[in-house]
Amino acid sequence: MSPRLVLAAIALIYVAAPPIATAKDSDPIWAATWQASPEPARAPVMGLNNQTVRQVVRISLGGTRFRVRFTNEFGDTPLKIGSAHVGLTTEGSSIKLGSDRALTFGGGSHDVVIPEHSYVYSDPVDLTVPSQGQITISLYVPGNEKNLTEHFFALQTAWIAAKDVTGATLIQGGTTITKRLLLSGVDVAVPRKRPVIVALGDSTTGGFGSTLDTDRRWTDRLTERFIAKKMQASVVNAGIGGNRLLHDFIGPNALSRFDRDVLSQSGVSHVVVLIGINDFGLPGGRKIPQEEVTLEQMVAGLRQMVSRAHSRGVKIYAGTLLPFGPIPERPGYYSELSAKKREALNQWLRGSKEFDGVIDFDAALRDSQDAKSLQAAYDSGDHLNPNDDGYKAMADAVDLKLFDFKLFD
Fold this sequence. Notes:
The protein is built from ten helices and 20 strands.
């Protein structure tokens, strides 16, 4: 064959060959739609030994394809998950018939070993779930694992049963708990980027004081507002009860976990920070005067968050701290000094132009006759955390225009 004919044949082969798929063509755009921030185990410590744990989560943004994140962040040895399933929740521990999906890992394996201090994502799974729909996630641990990463204030019932019953329609017998175990996130595949809002905070963001199994945290109620206005956005909750900005107490301090719980969330575009009340109250309440903090130290920590968020193109909003009045059950937590620090920080937040905006939760929930106290109608009873109505009032205080929907259309 002449050189000219060889070149012509090569050209025909080149033209006829199908295009090679690229990562950009084939990889979905992921958006975080639910999370529970990992914490070290605390009493009562739970272990799993040849057992299944079934957990229910209500996602924020719906879709047809999901992946699940499991964590061994506070484990000191590798942890094996023998199998995991996801399905649509019906009632209690039961799932809708025909909705059960086995999760795989690493391209098809039904089990996975999570290294110590690490986490894994499942492979994508097809399942149609509406926004604010509930899904049930079951995982089986074949070994005897005693040091489990958890999220303590789940405010949601979970079920533990013997052996591998991850694919069962209903968990019968067993025991119930109200912690999250080994489960830390759910992502949804979206056709184009949507606002993903991460709420970083303590028990007030975590929803402590709201009704068990009802999803009435302020972040849940904010999602309801988006849905009512047909606005597609995801709100994920990164609250840890007892958390502080500058010192570890329950879970890592918020400054240290900012990258993990905010910036690493898939598709994060905005963050709302509501943190600091425990920085002011716990030194007196726990008799740890060496951990007293100043306004200047708190401001410096918050500025670090602003800098980190802006360096990643993430908008960051501050929430003012709620009033917390004298707490008879927690002597020393409230003091005139801690109250003054709260007021001073709120004043700085309202006047500072360093955040992209401020959400005045304090103004929305304080007593009109006593600005140092929560309105009685919003008080869960501990004079610190809101009740269901208080969390709704917090969500109603958020200006939805903050989240730049025009940039995602």
